[in-house]
Amino acid sequence: MGSLPLLLFLLVAAAAPFSDGCGITVYWGQNGFEGTLQEACATNNYKYVAVAFLTTFGYGQTPVLNLAGHCDPPSGTCTKFASEISFCQSQGIKVLLSLGGAIGNYGISSPEDAQQVAAYLYDSYLSGFGGPLGNAALDGVDFDIEYPISTLHWDDLARAIAAYSTPGRKIYLSAAPQCIIPDRNLDVAIKTGLFDYVWVQFYNNPPCDYSGGAASLIKSWNDWSSLLPAGNELFLGLPASPLAAGSGYITPEQLKSEILPVIRQSANYGGVMLWDRYYDVTNNYSPQIVGYVCPLEVGKFEDFVISQVL
Prior knowledge:
By secondary structure, the protein is an alpha/beta fold. It has eleven helices and ten strands. It folds into two domains: 1-18 and 300-310, no CATH class; 21-293, Glycosidases (TIM Barrel). Helices cover 35% and strands 18% of the residues.
């Protein structure tokens, strides 16, 4: 029988080249049939959850949170999620508020507007002082900017939000650009280097998603990997079901055999992002890949480790 120290050494060796933050990101909030936020976090399949979406903000507008059939923000029923957010965070899961989405009325008109929106986000979602989601203090903000009033000033908003970080508490930033380079909305913002996580949408864009085969997708991944500033983690954004996007779906087996073994070699590899929780539930996607996304669980180590224990 192999010794426990040897087993621990093997597990540490397997994990060493990868980020501690490696994992699966999932978007939650756009389908009332996807289950609760706490149910999503209780699966232990996710490292990050993006609560989607704040669909109206900027240009002096009153911000609007849209969580589909989950709750009604104006009547205060979304505050019930404060305890669920706390549960997720207690499991080591970072919960971020996602801005934008494919349908909305949002934009940033000026650096001053960026400051005002950032102050609203901090006071209402990041501070724990109370807001549409109750007294939860979310871990950060996600930029899913797809339907712009203007493509300008997203870098100003990123800087304004990041300024709320303190030595004792970091406010995390993530971005979800399209896979076409440069992203028409977020290119300048991403180049600031302020985004801790960049989960690129490798779907709905056949020139750079799996529609063109593994080689085409991997080339696009490598282009993004080279583009990101140092310290930013890159995630492979995928539809969790063939019904979740117009193109780019990869079966779990194809992902595990053709794609993950290659992209995991990137120094800035962070994991996989899935759109979205509803499609993940209906297609049972994340349970099939979670053991292969991150290094500690990579299958190629399993047989050897087991052989040392038995």
